[in-house]
Amino acid sequence: MSRANDRVEALLREYAELIAISGQDPFKARAYEKAARAIGGHPTDIAQLDAKGLTEIPHVGRSIADKVLEYLRTGRIPEVDASREAVPAGVRELTRIPGLGPRKALVLHRELGISSVEELEEALRGEKLRDLKGFGERTEEGIRHGIGLLRQAGDRILLDAATELAEEIVAELSRIPGCVRCTYAGSLRRMRETIGDLDVLVAADTSEPFMEALTALPSTAEVIAHGAKKTSVRTASGVQVDLRVLPPASWGAGLQYFTGSKAHNIRTRELAVRHGLKLSEYGLFDAETGENLASETEEDVYARLGLPWIPPALREDRGEIAAALRGELPELLTERDIRGDLHTHTDLTDGLASLEDMAAAAAARGYAYYAVTDHAPDLAMQRMTKEKALAQRERLRALDRTIRGMRLLHGTELNIGPDGGLDWPDDFLAGFDLCIASVHSHFGQSREAMTSRIIRACENPYVAVLGHPTTRRIGIRPGVDADFDAVFAACARTGTALEVNAHPERLDLSDEDILRAKRHGVKFAVNTDAHATVHLPYLRYGVGTAQRGWLTKDDVVNAWPWGRLHRFLREKHHR
Ligand code: DGT
Ligand code: CA
Ligand code: CA
Ligand code: ZN
Questions:
Q1: Strand partners, 414
Q2: CATH classification for the domain delimited by 252-325, as one of 3.40.50.1970, 1.10.443.10, 3.40.50.150, 3.30.210.10
Q3: Among 71, 386, 414, 557, which one is least packed by beta carbons within 10 Å?
Q4: What are the tens digits of pLDDT across the range 255-296?
Q5: Cβ atoms 65, 5 nearer than 8 A
Q6: Beta strands 157-158 and 220-226, pairing class
Q7: What are the residue ranges of CATH 3.30.210.10 in the chain?
Q8: Could you read off the pLDDT of 39-72 as tens digits, one per residue?
Q9: In this structure, which topology does domain 157-246 adopt according to CATH?
Q10: Cα distance between residue 400 and residue 353, in whole Å
Q11: Ligand 1 centroid distance, CA of 475 (Å)
């Protein structure tokens, strides 16, 4: 984690959780949660701020500002340390289970002495929970489900945390004299949605300075193995990092090997064998003579196998080698192809930054267009009204006239009601430049009801994009149960784009869903769903996911020039 903002956000969130677990004032917990979110989303580095600057951040009062200053000075917040001591470790472990709140965790600990996920499973098997006050069969079902989700996520980390850590380590190692090349490989280079461990590679003639440096990094908490070829460490937040130092001459072969995936590597090795070659992390060799035929760059290695270079996001054994042999690899969407973000929020609803600040941050990214899509009234806690939406539109149009080179679009994120209805009638929707429709409630409907609900929303002529279509949150909540092939077909038929939501906790659609949807002939929109200026760069994770789904810029409506996007939106109105 690079920014002090992120570290303080994590600490304050933990503090809020500890307050909630220990049964203190829930408003206090909420206050810390809000402050945590505001600090995480704050554009300036809090390390540069004094007490006055800190209290200018929304939800940060004097007492929280003092804690932040204490942290910046000493690296600790004594109150957080004290409440860590006060809450039994077992209870905290239980709250890691999605859906199991602090109050229930505390009851389980106090009444049944449960202090680990394993003990909880044991108690579930023995039907011990049923007799507890406030627990029933439904609670049991929920807990079982939550444990399943926790196991599924395992100890894997989200793409943004992995990327930030990897970039920090690569920057440190690159600075060491003798470093010829340095990059990360493995699942992170392939942009998988979660990362098991980091695989960092260095090309250099001597390995020791790099191994030494890794073990000495401030982020390193524990050295697992320290060798000349490979060193593994664990960070304070529990992430394993494997560093391998390769001779510069075998850089390409090593990079290819350690990027994987394992399944892709098996295919490439098979192909090598068929050509009378042998492929390893050191190079591509003639099987008979042992002569090294290619090893310096990945391009060399693939070329000697009769293949073009294959982008890492495609290396999952999903037909990429056959496509490469046929010369039919897709020309993948890149971050540079994206011309605008079509799903973003401001502080008119639950965003952290003003319309002006969000627009300025978008313009700084070089976008040709940018849509503001605050929440609609059916998400009751957002308190949206027609009047507010219209006032925002006026303000946005005025702002648009002052910005050169970027077109501001006025949109909204509608809520798909339980029966597929939307927040506002069609004549009001017609006034927006673009509407996104998303499911935000009633996640537990039957498959049939959920399917027709989503399809009905897509049939609305003003719904341009189906937002975060499955509503999953990685490690927290599974996607809704619906016949998504029917949904994708409906999107193709009605001209509704499917969102690839780039938020690292969502990545929704996922790579596999994108591949499925693409077969129906659908178009996509890669959006950040930004609630703060610092979320706009999440786009890269959406683009990575789109690449894993084999998308090209032709598949993605916000990679199109405004004229083509505008036609796409208009055509739907007139179907
Ligand atoms: P992860 O860490 O679980 O998110 O996934 P990866 O893909 O990063 O897997 P990891 O860290 O175990 O290994 C990195 C790459 O090294 C992997 O993608 C392919 C290569 N590799 C590791 N072990 C083997 C192996 O036994 N056979 C082959 N062919 N390749 C391997
Ligand atoms: Ca890995
Ligand atoms: Ca590894
Ligand atoms: Zn949403």
A1: 437
A2: 3.30.210.10
A3: 386
A4: 999 999 999 999 999 999 999 999 999 999 999 999 999 999
A5: no
A6: unpaired
A7: 252-325
A8: 999 999 999 999 999 999 999 999 999 999 999 9
A9: Beta Polymerase; domain 2 (3.30.460)
A10: 17
A11: 22
